[in-house]
């Protein structure tokens, strides 16, 4: 019995020796043009022991161990093919031996996960005074527009909102094709809003954006009310200036823009002279004009007709 126990102890490895293998836990492509895989390293190395990692796929080696940080492999566009199956494994090389992970297979189209939207903002379109609720315009942007320029990715969005004090009662606007949406009839109160996106045809949802805190006031804010009063006051003053400055000068403006049309007259002839009707004097004045001939007047001759005929 003692010999059996000694044999077991001698054949058992030290508790501090390597007892695990690497594990590929995540692969992601933000745009279907490149992708990255990450793995968990060995966690039971002895003190001072080091391990080097090698990722292989289809009898090829990882092209880039640096871009995505430690314990990762990045495949750039020249090493990425859409709808091609990649089967890969990670091997840890230590002084005690090599330890290889289970094979991990993927299609790039299945691991597309877009970036979370940013710059989520809102505008109250009719704040205050509406008993039926208020309308809010929400908008956001995609952080890396270059991911969309080649047409591989067509984004759809999902927006969720809730009252600030209702932690699990999210309402959703789904399948949004544009980075903006209008919420209608929201009651007065405080709200929490978030948005995420994904590729329309395949892939995973992005992480949620940073939450937006939105407050719908019951009346027009004091700052906006002050601006409204100032604008109204300036408008009234401008109208008064126009009224008292322009109206007294209206006759002068009328004469300038609508001058009187002069009556027809002949240069050198007094209109009163023509009204007197002295034909001899008129003919004498007009004889100074070239080609003017005074009219000839003759007495009409009447034949006497007898009634007996």
TrEMBL record:
> Where does the record say this protein resides?
Membrane
GO cellular component annotations of the record: external side of plasma membrane
Question: Which segments cross the bilayer?
Answer: 225-247
Q: What is its main location?
A: membrane
Please give the SUPFAM superfamilies that the UniProt record associates with this protein.
Answer: Fibronectin type III (SSF49265)
Q: Where is the Fibronectin type-III domain?
A: 116-219
Q: What protein is this chain from?
A: Fibronectin type-III domain-containing protein
Please report the organism this UniProt entry assigns to the protein. Answer: Echeneis naucrates
